[in-house]
Structure formats: C-alpha cells, structure tokens
Design brief:
heterodimer; A: mainly alpha; MetI-like fold; 2 domains; 12 helices; B: alpha/beta; D-Maltodextrin-Binding Protein, domain 2; six-stranded mixed β-sheet
Chain lengths: ~325, ~475
C-alpha cells in the first residue's frame, strides 16, 4: 500500500517536471506549425501599407507554386530550382563531412592506436560548432572577397597579382557555403559517430581479430553494420538541417548571388515574408518543405534500411 | 568545485545575455532590437530651453542611415528643447529592410507608449509615394514653402493636395567627369566645354565611342544611367489594374544599355559594384559618373581622400544631357506622434532655417556617427547637402569663395542650382513599389551582361528574375505587355 502511494507520487512529479518542455513546445513549435498549415490555405499579405485577407482560397497557394505560368513561377518551377540549389550545397558539404567524421571517429576509438590527447582533439574539432553561422559566414565573406587575405596570400606566393572574385562564381560560392557547413558540423558528427562506435561491444572486435580479420574487414564487416543506426540518425538530421539551410548562404552571398545560384528554399521563402509579409504563400512553401523533408528522410531511412531512433533537428 | 564554477559561469552568461536584450534607453520592446533585423539607435538631448509641458520628452526618428542625424547632431540640437531626447531608430535600406520595419512601427504607432512612438520618419524618393498617400503620415500645416524648390514640395504632396513631408535637401544630379580623361576624349578639360560636348544624348553616345577607341569607359554603371531617365518619367510602372508595363523611358534606356554593353562602353555591374568604384581611383579608366551631391560625398570618398592613389581635383561637375534628380530624403510626421508642436517646428526649420541650411550645405566638420551602433564618434566627416531652399542655394551658387576641392575648387552648388530649377515631379508617375522598379528591375536587366562562370542570363531569364522580385513585394501584380 505504502509502495503504491509512492509510485503515484513519483509519476505526478514526473509529469510536473516534463510540463515546461511541453508548454514551450506547444507555444513555440506546435501552434506555429499548425497555424502555418492553416494560413497556407488563405490569401493573407500586405499590399503597400494595407493588409489583404485572410481570405480562404483552398489550395490556391499550392496551385500557384506548381503552376509554371503563375506570376510566382514565370516559366520555370521555382521550387525545383531552389530545391536543387539547396541539395547541391548540402551534398557538397555533407558527403565529405560523413567520410571525414567517420575516419576521425574510427581513429579516435581505435584500441590499437590509442591516440593521446583525445580530449584536446575532440574539443578542438567541436569548437567551430560553437561559433554562430552568421559570424562564420561574415568571416569567409571577408577572407574570400576579391581584395581579401586569401587573394593577397596567393598573390604574394605566386608573385603575380591574383584577383579572383570567389563570390561572383556559382561553383566557388556554393563550395564556400558547403565548406562552412562542413567545418561547422564535422565535429558534431564525429562525436556522434564515436559514441556509436564506443557503443559496439568490444568483444566483437576482439573476436574478429582472433578470427584473423584485417583492419579493413573489421571496419566494413563489424563497425559499419553495427554503426548503421547512428549513421541513419546522422544522415537524416543533417538532411533536415541541410534543407533548412539559410543563414550561411544568406550572409555569405547576400541572399543567393551570383545570379541566384546559392538561393536556398528558405531564402526564397524568406523573400515572401520580407517583401509583402505574404503568410499565405510562405505558409504553403513551408508546408511543402515539411513534406519534402519527410519524403527525403523516408528515402534515406529506407536506403540505409535500419531501425534507428527518431531523428532530432540538427543542421549540417 | 569545477562544476560550481561552471554553473556560476552559465548563470552569469544567461543574466548577461538577458541584459543585452534591454536597449540602452531602457524602453522595453524597442523596435530596433526585436525581429530578425536588429536596428540601431542613438540618442542625444537638446540644448534649447524647455519644451511645452504636454508634449513627449522623447523624439524618435526612424531612418536608414545617419546622414540626417549627423546634420541634426552638429547644427540643429540647440533648437531642440533641453528636456527632449532625440533618438534615431535605424534599419538598413537595402532589400527593403527599412520599409518592412518602418511599416510595422507606423501601424503600431498610435497604440505605442509615449516613449516608443515614432514621431518623424524618413522616406526616400523611391517610396515616399507609399507613405504620403497613407494615413500613417500626418498632413503638415503652417509650413512656409515659398522658398523651396517646387519638385521637393510636389514629391511630398499627396493626391488631395496635403503636404506630408519636407526635406532640407534637393538632389539635383548631374555628371561627375574625370578631367584628364575628358581632355583626351573630348579635347577639353574645361567644365563648360565638357558640358557643351555632352549636352545631348547623341553627343553623349558619340563620346562613348570615342572614349572606347581611346581605351576608356564612358560611364561606371548603366543602371545608374537609368536615374537620368527615371526623373523624366511621366507614367507609372503599374497601371490602375496593378499590371506592370515598362514605361517608354525604359525602352530608351534599354536600347542605349544594349549598345553600351555590346560595345564595352560601361562596366556590367550595378551602381555600387567594386569595379565601378575602383575605376574612380588614380588608374581608373572611367570618363564619367552620374550622381548628385550625396553620391560623390559618400561614394567617391575613396577617390577624393586617398592622396596619391586617389584622383582628387581631377574631376568636375556638369549637368550632362538631361536635368534630373536621384534620391532625396524627406521627413514625414508619423501619425500618433506625441510631439506635434516640435515636429511642426522641425519641419518648418528644415525648409527655412537659413543658418542650419547654410551650415549643413557646407558639410565640413560634421560629427560622424558610427555606422555600427549609431553613437557619435570624435571623427569629423564631410557630409554636405544641396539645400532645398532656393534662396540659400542661389546665395551659395553666387558665392565665389565656395568650391569643392575634389572638383579642383569648382563651385558645385552653381551647377546644381541650375539643374534644380529644371526638375519637375510628375504627380502620376509614381507607385508605392518604385524601389523595386528603379533598383530591382535594373539589377535584373544587367544579368544579361554580367558574366558568371562564363555564362550570362538570357533576356527572358532577366525578366523572370525581375518578376519574381515584383511578386515578392506585390503578390497580385501581373505583367502583360
């Protein structure tokens, strides 16, 4: 009887302790999310200084987004263009990031190597993640301006004046965005993968060694398959973060220059919020980004084919 | 122990970051610090004797840069009652950020607390239409406009005839010509001779060819060239059905732009491109730039202040083929202001306080404000204006002691006074979205000449690029023509 009473009391406190999270989640995440869905079915914007709407238009905003001749698309489906831009920059940053992080994670966790000063290196590689993306972008903007230090260093090494305008080239600008994201997130990924590897039973590695497996075999036959759940998690969170890429390209390329090739889905969406506070169209775009994210995450999940934890938000 | 130190540090960081949310004047929910586009604000107090008892003690002015604030700081604060604090609330002009924030502030203005109310806001020629036709601005009464250039008043008069704004400056724009290059290309470096050689568009286009043949560029950016035509616009970009149709002047510009770019008479970049600015320097190849006084005071400082590497003194100012204006800053009274008497006094003084206008026109020794936080620095800065008051302008024009050293002592007021007389403001040629047309459209059009990774956009892609900009600010606009 006494025990039961205690149990109920603990449960009550449990609920009280998690209440703040749910309150914050409902107010700052759930309600905005639902209202985004809601307003995506309305005409609701500012014309000059006057508010128009909200007037219910059903799927009107979605039709505009997919009607190639609407005044929003003008002959080419913008949502495809910007999804493409976003995915290119994400892949450029994420693929090297996975490979590099996996390599570092394996090296740091190797029983054979027993790297000294692990804590130091772990701290150092995680450092860039503590810097704000905006500061990172500003730093690169200054470094790679056509009169910036990078060009000056190249000039002084070669002895000839080198004046390459990195941010005026689509490829260079996209590569810079990807590099910043790589630098910011590889530490985080490394730590996650290390945790994954350390979670693998050490006796499996020993068993493999006794059976005569070489390092490659251990890596591909033991580490990788057992690391899959964490890999899926890392891939999906990075994808979600990648699709929401905004601050780095916005600041580095001033909203997508050159010629809009670095304009991401969210920069595009932001233009509609900024220009006419068009909550209808921007809402519809957000809903589409939501579904694109969902579909792509499902694909990643199916391809890597594993039962992992549910993804949490992470950028990369 | 370690944990305790860490906990203390985290707590301290939290408290400090919360303290950072509070703005320097202590008002909560300050416009400048909320939302994604953080603005800056800087305050100063007046010197004159006390204000009328029933008015607010804080005068808040919304602005996009500190040009006006610097004139106020240096020459006008003694006329503000000593118990009134002036606060400048700044948001950047680029990409419409200023307007987005201003719109929100003005719409909330009547309900805002006394110290959070915007009393005066600044508007540029490209969007004064939007604010003067709206009831967010108040009609000004009892303002003496008899000495003011007519176009300055017309620009701020709404369709019912009410005066909604004033400006201490007029912005007659002309051509800033590099004399050493003019000597080679036009055969003369005398301002009158240069004006004669560039007095109409045929001569101007012919000179462009000669300049090219001799290895020079005719003008910095062809998007700037649009400003000359824009001032002569008589029809609006949007018709009454919210349909976009290029104005006739656009096609004149477009033909010239195509010719200029095909022949390499100009740089394929917008008004503020690096290459455009670099060609103002010692080894620059550009014969002429287009702009009013603010253009050369702000945008050519690199050329004027750089000694050996610059080109100070090698320039002169002429009218060029067509009288025009570019830009201009008007002060409008915000509905809901709690300082109506003071606002009215300022408005009248901006047009008629000859002492203020003369000093601001001179522009030397102006206290510079920091561009990052808006605080007043110890540095001096050259920030002149061409006065909107015709009497003051004519006196400056006639004063032989006046002369700008960047122009080798030429009296720039004299030429600009002549240009200002010829400027008209067509009342029906403006829309609330003119910034998108005058900047956005032309930045889109030059993409067909701007080479990115060896490629340029097609004409259709340029139009599509512009239509997207238009759709963002004006979702229902169509474009059938």
């Amino acid at each position: 009887m006494k025990n039961k009473h205690k149990l109920v009391s603990y449960a009550k406190w449990g609920y009280i302790f998690i209440t703040p999270f749910f309150l914050v989640y409902i107010i700052f995440s759930l309600i905005p999310l639902l209202s985004t869905f809601y307003y995506s079915f309305f005409d609701y914007y500012q014309q000059g200084l006057d508010w128009i709407g909200p007037n219910f238009v059903g799927f009107g905003n979605y039709v505009k987004l997919f009607d190639i001749n609407s005044t929003l698309n003008n002959g080419s489906l913008k949502i495809l263009t910007y999804t493409k831009n976003t995915m290119i920059m994400w892949v450029l940053g994420a693929v090297p990031q996975f490979i590099f992080s996996l390599l570092l994670a394996v090296i740091f966790t190797s029983e054979r190597l027993r790297i000294k000063g692990q804590r130091f290196f772990k701290t150092v590689i995680y450092m860039p993640n503590l810097i704000m993306a905006a500061s990172f972008a500003m730093l690169f903007f200054a470094l790679f301006s056509n009169v910036g230090p990078v060009n000056q260093v190249i000039s002084s090494i070669t002895g000839e004046e080198f004046k390459y305008d990195y941010l005026a080239s689509t490829n260079a600008a996209r590569l810079l965005v990807a590099t910043i994201n790589f630098l910011m997130w590889f530490g985080n990924t490394t730590i996650l993968l290390m945790a994954g590897i350390m979670g693998i039973d050490q006796s499996l590695f020993e068993a493999a060694a006794i059976d005569g497996a070489n390092s490659w075999q251990v890596f591909f036959k033991v580490t990788i398959p057992l690391l899959m759940p964490i890999m899926v998690y890392v891939a999906i969170t990075s994808l979600i973060g990648g699709l929401q890429m905004f601050d780095v390209p916005q600041i580095l390329t001033n909203g997508g220059a050159p010629a809009g090739d670095c304009e991401t889905l969210i920069i595009w969406l932001n233009g509609y919020i900024g220009g006419s506070k068009n909550y209808g169209i921007a809402g519809a775009m957000s809903v589409l980004v939501f579904f694109i994210t969902g579909i792509l995450s499902l694909i990643v999940y199916k391809v890597l084919n594993s039962d992992s934890d549910k993804p949490k938000k992470k950028r990369g | 122990m370690k944990k305790r130190i860490l906990a203390a540090m985290i707590a301290a960081a939290t408290v400090l970051s919360l303290a950072g949310c509070k703005d320097e004047t202590g008002s909560s929910g300050d416009s400048g610090n909320s939302s994604s586009n953080a603005g800056n604000s800087g305050t100063t107090s007046g010197d004159s004797s006390g204000s009328s008892a029933d008015e607010g003690k804080k005068l808040r002015i919304a602005c996009w840069n500190y040009e006006m604030a610097e004139w106020f700081d240096t020459y006008y604060m003694d006329k503000i009652p000593s118990d009134v604090t002036v606060e400048w609330v700044q948001f950047p002009n680029a990409d419409g950020v200023y307007q987005q924030n201003l719109d929100r502030l003005l719409q909330e203005n009547e309900d805002a607390s006394a110290d959070d109310k915007i009393d005066i806001f600044l508007a540029e020629a490209d969007y004064i239409q939007k604010y003067k036709e709206s009831d967010v601005s108040i009609a000004l009464t009892g303002i003496d406009t008899s000495n003011t250039y007519k176009y300055v008043i017309d620009a701020a008069t709404d369709s019912t005839g009410a005066l909604k704004g004033v400006s201490p400056q007029a912005t007659p724009s002309g051509m800033i010509v590099r004399k050493s290059i003019a000597k080679e290309v036009l055969g003369t470096d005398d301002p009158d001779g240069i004006q004669e050689a560039l007095s109409d568009w045929n001569k101007y286009n012919a000179a462009a060819k000669t300049a090219k043949d001799k290895g020079y560029l005719m003008t910095g950016s062809i998007t700037t060239l649009w400003r000359v035509y824009a001032a002569g616009q008589t029809e609006p970009w949007l018709d009454s059905n919210n349909n976009f149709k290029p104005v006739p002047e656009f096609y004149t510009w477009y033909e010239q732009a195509k010719d200029f770019m095909a022949n390499g008479y100009s740089i394929a970049d917008g008004n503020w491109g690096d290459e455009v600015t670099n060609n103002m320097m010692k080894d620059g190849k550009c014969l002429s730039y287009i702009g009013p006084m603010w253009y050369y005071a702000f945008n050519m400082t690199k050329a004027f202040d750089n000694g050996e590497n610059g080109s100070s003194g090698d320039w002169c100012f002429i009218q060029g083929p067509q009288a025009h204006y570019w830009g201009g800053t008007w002060l409008l009274g915000a509905k809901g202001t709690d300082n109506p008497t003071l606002v009215n006094q300022i408005m009248n003084d901006m047009l008629n306080d000859e002492d203020f206008l003369n000093k601001a026109a001179d522009g030397h020794g102006i206290k510079k404000r920091s561009e990052t936080d808006g605080s007043i620095t110890n540095e001096d800065k050259y920030n002149p204006l061409f006065p909107s008051n015709k009497k003051v302008a004519d006196a400056l024009a006639a004063d032989s002691s006046k002369g700008f050293e960047g122009f080798d002592g030429q009296n720039d007021y004299a030429i600009q006074a002549k240009i200002a007389d010829g400027i008209t403001w067509a009342p029906n040629a403006h829309t609330a979205f003119d910034q998108t047309f005058n900047e956005g459209l032309f930045d889109s059009m030059i993409l067909q000449w701007k080479v990115v990774d060896g490629k340029t956009k097609t004409e259709d892609e340029c139009w599509a690029d512009f239509y997207e900009k238009l759709n963002k600010v004006n979702p229902t606009a169509t474009h059938n023509f």
